[in-house]
Amino acid sequence: MTTTPTLGVEEEFLLVDPTSGAPVARNKSVADRAAEHGVELQLELTSCQVETATGVVTETDELREQLVRLRRTAANAAERTRAQLLAVGLPPTLPREFPVTDTPRYRDIGEMFGMIAHEQGICGAHVHVAVPDRDAAIAVSNRLRPWLPQLLALTANSAIYRNTDTGHASWRSVLWARWPSAGPPPQFGSAEEYDAAVQLLCDTGVMRDPGMVYWDVRPSANFPTVEVRVADVPATVAETVLFAALVRGCVTTALDDARRGEHTLSLAPFLLKAAYWKAARDGLDGDGVDLQNRATAPALELLEGLVDRVRPALEAAGDYELVTTGLARIAELGNGAMRQRRAWERRHDMGDVLAAAAAATLEAP
């Protein structure tokens, strides 16, 4: 068994007007306020978003503490600028516009990609897990592909968008797929093959730069990690910790399988796309696609099967009970998409959806 690797988490958040719920372009002001309390917030493509980043940790207890502190600090900073911080995959209300953050890079992306860039407000969560080298990151990416739809279903948190139920648990992932370099990662034979593909996408103008590799798993450009980016930002800290622990278990299992020379499941692109769409539509309270057996099965059963598959890695990290307990709690209370729908179905009142999202964002884990 591979030594338990370190991990870190990035979470993206939406800034909205506390009364109307409309996205507000105040990320720079919020970042300035957070910096006064020692927290550096990253500015995202659209100016109604900010991103937090934890330090490198080994224990999930420490991860939880950092996530709580970062969310609270960012929420307090937002409040001081007359905004509200929400952990949602997309704005629930009808936005007037999504202004691009005023930096040279983001202005270039806005000009290059037009409406794809200007219809954003998309918030995800990214988990970095340490790996030995970039070739190991590519091997992990190849082996994680069949599990990505289940991780998407787990974190789905964008059912309500533009004042309506989208019919999808993760509408974020559907919109995100419009980027030419987004979605499930291709299968590569080596880091060199990956680098050549990225260079080709840049040379042909499909991407502005390598930072626009938006695939749901990618080797980090700056750290010795593999980055898993498939998730909507989870509604609560507890769900983010669960997601991160499960991702680390998947990465550790993939590394062990690669060392042993275990077979990598080969997937036709159409089949993986179908499993993604099914996960985005049904989320946790419907069916998913069992890619191993080419059949449908309840999404929760597929997740429980994934937990069983990576159980040795979870136990080695001391995370097995956290993951099983967390999954049982979500089965009982629902994930972000299920909470959004329950709030919406009460009265079809957007105020209920916003209040539920705000409460979940700062819910004690």
List keywords for this structure.
alpha+beta, 7-stranded antiparallel beta sheet, two-stranded antiparallel sheet, 13 strands, 48% helix, globular, GCL_type2/YbdK_subfam
Short description:
The protein is of the alpha+beta class and 365 residues long.
Written overview of the protein:
This protein is α+β, with helices and mostly antiparallel strands and about 375 residues long. The protein has one domain (about 5-190, about 215-360): Creatine Kinase, Chain A, domain 2, CATH 3.30.590. The chain contains 15 helices and 13 strands. Strands 1, 2, 3, 4, 5, 10 and 11 form a seven-stranded antiparallel beta sheet that branches. Helix 1 crosses helix 2, helix 9 crosses helix 12 (about 310-315) and helix 14 runs antiparallel to helix 15. The radius of gyration is 19 Å and the shape is globular.
